[in-house]
UniProtKB/TrEMBL annotation:
Source organism: Heyndrickxia oleronia
One Pfam family here: FAA_hydrolase
Domain Fumarylacetoacetase-like C-terminal: 45-243
SUPFAM superfamilies recorded: FAH
Name by which UniProt lists this protein: 2-hydroxyhepta-2,4-diene-1,7-dioate isomerase
Length: 248
């Protein structure tokens, strides 16, 4: 099942897809164009992986990591499907990153990789925009790069884990203004989903609503104001965002 969170006529609803429309949790059936899409999950801790695809690390002139390069993101960064992402005026290189998101469904501590999928509630899509101009130094590599407001569109759907037979073999694609610019497969991850759950839960407790953004493959290119960017993952959906000027 695919579920969403939407705003409709001043209220927030959970919704499911039905016959090409949205069925709200009060059973009304409405057009998808009538709502404001929200992040499909109210987040707790948001983990993100850097350089989890060797070909992406290579295109950025980094070495592939020998253990997971994990950083945290603030909930301020999230926006829903069809949202607007602000690009600062003073930057030269801001690129998209199509990523599979793992949503944790129950408390996990010291989970083995063999048990890991039992703790997954479902999957969604993130476009984890990166602003390379803000890359600072070894000690603070991703704080400004990855935590600006509106720079992580996510959704539109949370897809139940049991509906994704093999999350480690899904095709990822990104289109900018309709042109295919990025294509890869989750099979290319350096650290797999089971490995990441085992790794994180070995030293901290994971809770329902925690999310793991699992990294992006090769093909991230610069974006400009006015670009419409679609990130899609096989079996999960298509996520649209538009780049606008940050005049704040």
């Amino acid at each position: 099942m695919k579920t969403a969170r939407v705003a409709y006529k001043g209220r927030i609803y959970e919704a499911v897809e039905k016959d090409g429309k949205l069925q709200l949790n009060d059973h009304r059936l409405i057009s998808m164009d009538e709502v404001v899409w929200l992040p499909p999950v109210i987040p707790r801790t948001i983990f993100a992986l850097g350089l989890n695809y060797a070909d992406h690390a290579q295109e950025l002139d980094f070495n592939a990591p020998s253990e997971p390069l994990v950083f945290l993101k603030g909930p301020n960064t999230l926006i829903g499907h069809q949202g607007q992402t602000k690009r600062p005026k003073d930057v030269d290189f801001m690129h998209y990153e199509c990523e599979l998101v793992v949503v944790i469904g129950k408390v996990a501590r010291n989970v083995t990789s063999e048990e890991a999928y039992q703790y997954v509630k479902g999957y969604t899509i993130a476009n984890d925009y990166a602003i390379r101009d803000y890359l600072e130094n070894y000690y603070r590599p991703n704080l400004r790069v990855k935590n600006r407001d509106t720079c992580t569109p996510i959704g539109p759907w949370l897809v139940d884990a049991e509906d994704i037979k093999d999350p480690m073999n899904l095709t990822l694609r990104t289109y900018v203004n309709g042109e295919l610019t990025q294509e890869g497969s989750t099979s290319q991850m350096i650290f797999s989903i089971p490995f990441l759950i085992e790794y994180l839960s070995s030293f901290m407790t994971l809770s329902p609503g925690d999310m793991i953004l699992t990294g992006t493959p090769k093909g991230a290119v610069n974006t400009k104001i006015g670009d419409e960017v679609i990130t899609e993952i096989e079996g999960i959906g298509r996520l649209l965002s538009t780049i606008v000027e940050d005049d704040g």
